[in-house]
Design a protein that fits this description.
single chain, 364 residues, alpha+beta, OB fold (Dihydrolipoamide Acetyltransferase, E2P), five-stranded mixed barrel, five-stranded antiparallel β-sheet, 6 helices, 20 strands, rod-shaped
């Protein structure tokens, strides 16, 4: 009992000899009594494998931290002999500081880095690179590599130090805005496909190519026509600096079907149209070159929407060509008026000829 009382004296440093090493710690002989140094009490780094640091017969300095009288179990600590390095870290470092560390261990979820003095920091996978498609930390850093990192969190109570590697690297979006502007035509690599479009990497930054901006054909979808890994030429449609988002456009690199239609046709021209869909407000029809047009109900007379069939061919006059808004409107009623006007003009021409012939006869 006297020996135990002596060992338990506050802050007393005891010299002992490593007697046995296990997976959960090591037994140390102190004055003929065996005590256990649990692996949590070896280093301020946290749980460590004692066999990597010590061997049987090694002499170590320890402190007694508890004694279970019933079990006659003596608990010892090696780290209690040392000054708490976390207090020094909290005093010496601030969030935002840049420090040099050594990569000590790499896991799928992040990297452990060594600051020295039994202090280990954690570099989460999300803080390694600005690339959101990172698969594994080992693709970017290696064990033993010295790197500069930024301190982003210090908690001496929980012994946690979080650092960031990417925050000391140039931000790809900022570099992108220095190099490119809206309207530039660039070549990118397709990184992923979704139901609403495709993500394309350009200059280290991903932009979104929405389905509606892929092709003038509204039925074409990115997921059905593109392949991950392929290169694609696109135009930078919009750069949103606040949200750090980039919108891309593919179809604007080609002349729109409506522009082509406008080049080949003029207002009031009569065209053949195929009924594609009937709505409450009018009828959608297809024209040559895959162009769609609308005939509103008020422009459909004398035809009746309910009597039309999908696929039926009708004639109508061009009423509006709005290339900017990607719209064409036709009118059957306008066609009727044009036909009536044509008929009237022919009658007037015939009347004029008849009157001229009559005058000529009288002058003979």
């Amino acid at each position: 009992k006297e020996v135990i009382d002596a060992l338990m004296e506050e802050d007393k440093v005891i010299q002992g000899t490593v007697k046995k090493i296990t997976s959960y710690g090591m037994f140390v002989d102190v004055g003929g009594i065996d005590g256990l140094v649990h692996y949590n009490e070896i280093s301020y780094k946290g749980p460590v494998n004692p066999s990597k640091l010590y061997k049987e017969g090694d002499v170590v300095n320890v402190k007694a931290i508890s004694y279970d009288k019933d079990k006659r179990h003596l608990s010892l600590s090696i780290k209690a002999v040392q000054s708490d390095p976390w207090q020094e870290v909290e005093e010496a470092l601030e969030e935002g500081d840049t420090i040099t560390v050594t990569v000590s261990n790499i896991e799928p979820y992040g990297i452990f880095v060594d600051l020295g003095n039994d202090i280990e920091g954690f570099l989460h996978i999300s803080e390694i690179t600005w690339d959101k498609n990172i698969k594994h930390p080992k693709d970017y850093l290696t064990v033993g590599q010295e790197i500069d990192v930024e301190v982003i969190e210090i908690n001496s109570k929980t012994h946690k130090l979080r650092v960031s590697y990417k925050r000391l690297q140039p931000k790809p979006f900022e570099e992108f805005t220095k190099k490119f502007k809206e309207g530039d035509v660039v070549t990118g690599t397709i990184t992923s496909l979704t139901d609403f479009g495709a993500f394309v990497k350009v200059g280290g930054v991903e932009g979104l190519l929405h389905n509606q901006d892929l092709s003038w054909d509204k039925n074409v979808k990115c997921k059905e026509t593109l392949t991950v890994g392929d290169e694609i030429e696109v135009k930078i449609a919009k750069i949103n600096v606040d949200d750090e988002k980039i919108s891309l456009n593919r179809k604007s690199l080609e002349e729109s079907p409506i522009d082509q239609f406008a080049t080949n046709h003029k207002m009031n021209e009569v065209v053949q149209a195929t009924v594609r869909d009937v709505k409450d407000f009018g009828v959608f029809v297809s024209l040559e070159g895959g162009v769609d047009a609308l005939i509103r109900n008020e422009d459909l007379y004398p035809l009746i929407a309910e009597e039309l069939e999908i696929g039926q061919t009708i004639e109508a006059a061009i009423l509006v060509i709005d290339a900017k808004r990607d719209r064409i409107r036709l009118s059957v009623k306008k066609l009727e008026r044009l036909n009536d006007q044509k008929m009237l003009d022919e009658i007037n021409d015939n009347d004029a000829h008849s009157l001229g012939d009559l005058i000529k006869d009288q002058l003979k």
